[in-house]
Amino acid sequence: MKLSNKLLVAFCSSLLLTSCMDVLDKTDLGSTQGALIFKDSMLTQMNLDFIYDQNLPAPIGSLGPEPLGISGLSDESYGESKLLQGTVLVNDVTDFGTALKADNNYGKIRVINMFLNDVKAGPLPQYTKNKLRAQAQFFRAWRYFDLVRLYGGVPLVLTPLAAVGVEAKQLDFLPRNTTAETFAQIVKDLDSTIASVPGRWSASNDWGRVTKGTAAALKGRALLYAASPQFNPTDDQARWQAAYDANKQAYDLLTANGYGLHASFDQLWFQEVNNPEAVFLTGYNTATGTQTAKSNGYDNSTRPSYAGTAGGSNQPSWEMVKAFPMLDGKKPGESTKYTYSEQLFYKNRDPRFDKTIAYNGANWPLNGNTAYKVWTYYVGGKTIESKASNTGFYTRKAINPSVSTGDAQYTGTDWIEIRFAEVLLNLAESAVGINKPDEAYTQLKAVRKRAGIEAGTDGLYGLKANMSRAELFDAILYERQIEFAFEGKRFWDLRRWKLIEKTLNGTRRTGVTINLKTTGVPADFATNRDNVNLDVAYTNYFTLAFKQLDTKYSIAWKPEYYFFAIPQSAIDNNPKLIQNTTWGGAFDPLK
Q: Which PROSITE patterns match (predicted)?
């Protein structure tokens, strides 16, 4: 997507415009400058593109500042955190915003509300105003979705309030709306978006703008959260029905406009315009040294350090490595066709394994070298890498293999926040919620078929036949774990299903050290290893040693973290903000 890259600089450098980073100081909403801007469709569009740039998500699913790195926390990888240690304090999750700043949720909502207000009051044709405002409403829903999934209900600020002093004044001491009211406002904004934006933009430079399907997909995701056990402990069927209706609407709108599963699970990241899988994305480019430069950062930080200028984050844990199914779709140890061996962990796995995990000896055509193999083994207790992977593995998903080492920091791969595969699995999950198992099977099979899993004689792609409702829910969460590995989804799935204690508590994530034996190894192994059969190497030359990555603590997630505390500093600013019941207050986030 290139829209914000082309227009943002011109926007921010124009003295006429009033919605740049100092927008929060604006007090006269009817100023002459504002009137001039919103008489001009191009300047209005540039204001909207600034809203895009402020609110589009960064790689690994981050909607906001995420001071605790929330989206990356799970059994996928390793990272120390107060959340997993169980030591979160009331002021630690600060996405709520306790200062009048442009980079917190309410600061961004204020910019959106100003835009909505000024466009509505401007002289542009009604059709044009509706289309512009609808895109801004999408991002207001996006921001409130971030807030509600963190805290439950929050104050709904829908007009640009006077910017005076501190956040409490900005909010005019508004009380929290209920969680139900917050979800309802999200749906209302997204319905407005669906009604006024196209199903597909015709101009190539509009690729990445919000479409009807984008808004419907976000509505489906939001209502799936509302139906999940975190928000729906009584399993209210009406909530599942609402989620199903929303996700079915998203599916219908997207398929009617040419969206669908990309033919390739790994190459889907590298097609930009007209990528059928890209429902909601953040665009990046490869420009360098200019104000329009906007690289995605993820590629350079994730690939090995010697293949870029940073490198080595998002390292898969042994738990993630073991999670992938076998080639027939059965879990390791459950397949009767393919035997799983820890020593030969890479053999006969779901094809998504090799497209997600880079392991010792794997062919990984980095830096344009199609024959390149990554080696992570140790000799005499020392790594052969210039900087070793802590877990023994790397993430290769969405890493552009053709980028050279020096250019890795400028990678322009777009980040796809909502893929069509998610729409399918959201639809499957909500279908299970209203007892439509056949539809769930249909979507699960579609995802597994694209992955390259064997269909089997029963055509179920490794799925168990006639699963119960509970079994189908588990199967869908498992599919999401594999399909969306390292896309910032796993933590939120475990949290909305209240499964973090069951899945993680008391455990310590694991890494692997692969050691080269001291005897029986060919003298020329180091120089000839790329030509050695990998099965022979692992069977005869390597040993695997397992290590705990969590050395300071076992994971100890606490139940109160399913709704984080409103920061005390925000409550001190606004006495009408009531703390969640799980943190000693009287506000029930389930209502």
A: PROKAR_LIPOPROTEIN (PS51257)
Instruction: Kindly state whether residue 465 falls inside one of the protein's structural domains.
Output: no
Residue 420, C-beta contacts closer than 8 angstroms, at least 6 positions apart: 254, 259, 260, 261, 262, 276, 277, 278, 279
Cα of first residue to Cα of last residue in the chain, in angstroms, is: 39
* Sign of the Cα pseudo-torsion (393, 395, 400, 405, in order): negative
3-class secondary structure per residue, 186-245 = HHHHHHHHHHHCCCCCCCHHHCCCCCHHHHHHHHHHHHHHHHCCCCCCCCCHHHHHHHHH
Number of Cβ within a 10 Å radius of residue 498: 15
Number of domains forming the structure of the chain: 2
* Locus of tokens 């198992």: 437
Q: Are residues 494 and 404 in the same domain?
A: no
Query: pLDDT tens digit string along 291-322?
Result: 677 888 899 999 999 999 888 889 999 999 99
CA separation for the pair 279, 263 (Å, rounded):
15
**DSSP state, residue 62:** B
How much is the pLDDT for 160?
Answer: 85
What is the per-residue pLDDT for 11? 31
Enumerate residue ranges in the chain where pLDDT < 50. Answer: 1-33, 163-171
DSSP assignment string, 238-292: HHHHHHHHHHHHHHHHHHHTT----S-TTGGGG--TT-TTEEEEE------SSTT
**Where would I find the H helices in 318-454?**
318-323, 352-356, 420-433, 437-451
| pLDDT value of residue 36 | 64
pLDDT at 30: 38
493 and 542 part of one domain: no
β pairing state of 362-363 and 373-374: antiparallel
Which whole-number Å values give the CA distances from 401 to 315, 364, 404, 442, 443, in the listed order?
Answer: 17, 8, 8, 33, 30
> Do residues 518 and 535 both lie within one domain?
yes
pTM for the full model?
Answer: 0.92
For residue 358, the surrounding DSSP H or E stretch is strand 357-358
Per-residue burial over 140-167, b = 16 or more CB atoms within 10 Å of its CB, e = otherwise: bbbbbbbbbbbbbbbbbbbebbebeebb
| Domain assignment of residue 89, yes or no | yes
Note whether residue 64 is domain-resident: yes
Task: Identify the bridge partners of residue 543 per DSSP, sorted by sequence position.
Answer: 515
Phi-psi map region of 192: left, alpha, beta (phi>0 left; psi -120 to 50 alpha): alpha
Question: How many Cα atoms sit within 13 Å of 14 on the Cβ side?
Answer: 19
- Sequence-ordered alpha helix ranges (H) in 101-153: 105-121, 126-151
Q: What is the maximum span of the chain, computed from C-alpha positions, in angstroms?
A: 82
| Predicted pLDDT of residue 368 | 86
Neighbours of 168 (CB within 10 A): 20
**If we measure between CA atoms, which residue out of 175, 202, 226 comes closest to residue 274?**
202
Closest CA to 407 of 312, 304, 299, 302: 299
Please check whether residue 248 lies inside any domain of the structure. no
What is the domain range of residue 338?
Answer: 302-408+510-548
Contact 139, 177 (CB under 8 A): no
